[in-house]
């Protein structure tokens, strides 16, 4: 996985996305701009973060899950 | 024999929606729809750690900044594993100082290769030939190039095609042979006799009513 390591921890790019979610950004486009990553990477990364339980999807926006919030302090 | 026939049946065509996929890549699991809104060059190479492919990957990496300026993403593919792709990309960087900045699909089950008609059994039954699919932001195939295993691709031509397609979309014109950005473009030919007569009075550079050019 590109955004979540095998041990379940976010990678550097995953952490950037989680930080952007914590800052209140929710769409892949907003997060890509904030994190300095290509939009395709963010779309795929957010899917991974959601599958790992670190983010939640609501319609076309994402937000931090409780588990994700614990990792980003 | 049946299996070979199967592999050659599906050939995508220009102006058709690009076949959807979800694939394991060196940048994680990617779907075609992840690239929606960007232009995408999906290209295949025969195999990692081979000489012509290495020169191509260096060349694709070198034009990557120019592609980014044009809103274009790159996505490579071969029938090799992610570990092989990672090892090859690291080797290229170590030996040539060129970092491969784009993802590469590890198409071990050939799902994407077969959907895009990338395996030409006359060239190789197991490797993909050198294909280039230029896909627009609406995920429609706009250009297809196929090169044999022995011929490395021309990056200038790939950039030129991107410039031509984007110029066509923006200005509703066509581009003549050997067109380069800044050159005159072709005005679409008239559809009626009246339009043909009017065309000659519109100040374009016309060889005749059906071949008129203009500066953008």
Explain what this protein looks like in three dimensions.
The complex is a heterodimer of chains A (73) and B (216). Chain A is mainly alpha-helical. Chain A is 52% helix and 11% strand. Chain A has helices spanning 12-22, 28-35, 39-51, 66-71, and strands spanning 55-58, 61-64. Chain A is globular, with a radius of gyration of 10 Å. The mean pLDDT of chain A is 90. The mean pLDDT of chain B is 94. Helices cover 33% and strands 22% of the residues of chain B. Chain B has helices at residues 2-9, 51-69, 82-96, 111-115, 155-171, 193-199; strands spanning 22-25, 28-31, 39-44, 72-78, 104-106, 130-135, 141-147, 185-186, 205-208, 211-214. With 216 residues, chain B is α+β, with helices and mostly antiparallel strands. Chain B is elongated. Chains A and B meet through helix 3 of A and strand 2 of B.
The biggest beta sheet of chain A is recorded as: 2 strands, antiparallel
Domain tally of chain B: 2
What does the overall shape of chain A look like? globular
**Oligomeric assembly:** heterodimer
Residues in helix, % of chain A? 40-55%
Rounded mean pLDDT of chain A is: 90
- Main β sheet profile of chain B: 5 strands, mixed
Number of DSSP strand runs of chain A: 2
* Most residues in contact: chain pair: A-B, 12 and 11 residues
Radius of gyration of chain B: 20 Å
CATH superfamily of the largest domain in chain B: Glutaredoxin
What is the number of beta strands of chain B? Answer: 10
What secondary-structure arrangement, pairings included, does this model have?
The complex is a heterodimer of chains A (73) and B (216).
Chain A (H helix, E strand, L loop, with lengths): L11 H11 L5 H8 L3 H13 L3 E4 L2 E4 L1 H6 L2
Chain B lengths: L1 H8 L12 E4 L2 E4 L7 E6 L6 H19 L2 E7 L3 H15 L7 E3 L4 H5 L14 E6 L5 E7 L7 H17 L13 E2 L6 H7 L5 E4 L2 E4 L2
Parallel strand pairs in B: 3-4, 4-5
Antiparallel strand pairs in B: 1-2, 3-6, 6-7, 8-10, 9-10
